[in-house]
Amino acid sequence: MTISQESYHERLRTLSEASVHIHFDAFTDIDWDNPEFAIDPKDPRWVLPAADPLGGHPWYQAQPLEVRTKIGLWRYANIVKVGMQFENVLIRGVMDYLFSLPNQNPEFRYLTHEATEECHHTQMFQEFVNRAGADVPGGRRSFRVVSRFLPLAGSLIPESFFTGVLAGEEPIDHLQKAILRGGENIHPLMRRLMQIHVAEEARHISFAHEFLRVKVPGYGRFRRGALSVAFPVIMRVLGDVIVVPDRKTAEKIGVPHWVIKDIFWKSPDGEKMLRDLFSDVRMLAEDIGLMNRASRKVWRALRIDGRPSRFRGEPAPHAA
User: Fold this and answer.
1) Per-residue b or e along 89-106, where b marks 16 or more CB atoms closer than 10 Å to that residue's CB
2) Residue 22 Cα to chain centre, angstroms
3) pLDDT, tens digit, for every residue of 65-83?
4) Could you tell me which InterPro entries the record lists for this protein (predicted)?
5) At 243, phi and psi to the nearest 5?
6) CA torsion angle 119 122 124 125 (round to 10)
7) Quick check: 204 and 83 in contact, CB under 8 A?
8) To the nearest 10°, the Cα dihedral for 149, 155, 156, 161?
């Protein structure tokens, strides 16, 4: 389903107003010095919940409590670090896109709100890493190198840039919602970070969907064809950057390589989770005409094909 320019601008106004009335500050909305939020590396609430790919694996669940706690804190810290790095790239790319926008374009106001919110997220994430005392690298080295150049896509190929935005935001949003829905006893500081992130990312994901819905149908045949093939590649590559831990780093804290391979994405559960992560964007690709004979082969080759969501945010068990 495509949308008109008028409807798009109306939705931008709605998103902008929502950002004014519901927003969070990294240092006023989180009481970092609250004793309940103190980070004790031996606190069993750092044990990963079953909704986390590593937390649900039999190898992890068979480890002694102190090992699961140590790995859990490291896992949370590394996901938060890579989230900070990804949002840093997003902010720079958004600023690049905004630089040459014409006057009166409502995208400027909304995206500036989004960049402001993402700045607070980077502060929030880095503060957690600092307090956790975990010297985690975040994304793999190749991503950290390429991230120097990715923001240029904001103005040069904005459709690919905002596809990349979804590729980073959708998987982590999916996992955080699954953890929060699971109701397990996770550390209250991590729960608070997730609640804030999920609340604001809902707007950011919504914008990226709307941006592609209004822009892509107006592109020429070649540009749409190129994006249709690039779309699943961007999803898989950046999705892996966000979700899959670096092998060498994982081995340093005692997670064997075979466990990482099994979880991401060799086991039946891993294969299902991989497909689940992208059910919403498969729906988007169908709606804006990016599913064709060639692109479907790419989705299948990357093992992220499957039934699209019936609605955005459909719970994973029904979206496989």
Assistant:
1) bbbbbbebbbeeeeeeeb
2) 20
3) 999 999 999 999 999 999 9
4) AurF/CmlI, Ferritin-like_SF, RNR-like
5) -95, -35
6) 170
7) no
8) 70
Q: Which tokens in the block code for residue 211? A: 């941006």
Spatial CB neighbours of 196, under 8 Å, sequence gap ≥ 6: 24, 29, 30, 121, 124
Contact 168, 150 (CB under 8 A): no
Rounded Cα–Cα distance for residues 219 and 240 (Å):
28
- Length reported for the chain: 320
By C-alpha distance, which of 21, 13, 43, 4 is closest to 190? 43
Tell me if the bond preceding 258 is cis, omega within 30° of 0: no
Report CA torsion sign: 167, 173, 176, 178: negative
Q: Is residue 77 within 8 Å of 103, Cβ to Cβ?
A: no
pLDDT tens string 138-148 = 999 899 999 99
Taking alpha carbons only, the member of 208, 203, 88, 83 closest to residue 151 is 88
Which helix (H) or strand (E) segment holds residue 264: the answer is: none
Average pLDDT for the chain: 93
Q: Which phi-psi region, left, alpha or beta, contains residue 143 (left: φ > 0; alpha: ψ -120 to 50)?
A: alpha
